[in-house]
């Protein structure tokens, strides 16, 4: 399974990066390939490539604030979660996506 994610929060500081790290750790623990773009106070980092987006089974977007360039994900299954849920429930999010794709 391949995932891409974009994390952002209103202040663009801690939660953006904590959410990204939590998703990366959860994905690795569950043998899932993930690429995470952060949209923080210093701009877009680790910007997703079209190849990564095209190859992804699912897109995870945080919903605390608007995501820049969201049109890139048109036609892809999108899961919207809060940055807080990414931080606190990263593994549960990854596992739920795995279960839905297995059906």
Automatic annotation (TrEMBL):
One of its GO terms (biological process) is phosphoenolpyruvate-dependent sugar phosphotransferase system. One of its GO terms (cellular component) is plasma membrane. One of its GO terms (molecular function) is protein-phosphocysteine-sugar phosphotransferase activity. This is PTS system, Fru family, IIB component. Keywords: Kinase, Phosphoprotein, Phosphotransferase system, Sugar transport, Transferase, Transport. Residues 1-99 form the PTS EIIB type-2 domain.
């Amino acid at each position: 399974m391949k995932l891409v994610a974009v994390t952002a929060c209103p202040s663009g500081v801690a939660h953006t990066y904590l959410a990204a790290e939590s998703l990366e750790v959860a994905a690795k623990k569950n043998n899932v390939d993930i690429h995470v773009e952060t949209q923080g106070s210093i701009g877009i980092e680790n910007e997703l490539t079209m190849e990564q987006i095209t190859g992804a089974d699912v897109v995870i977007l945080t919903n605390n604030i608007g995501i820049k360039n969201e049109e890139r994900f048109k036609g892809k299954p999108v899961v919207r979660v809060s940055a807080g849920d990414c931080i606190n429930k990263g593994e549960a999010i990854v596992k739920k996506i795995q279960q839905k794709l297995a059906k």
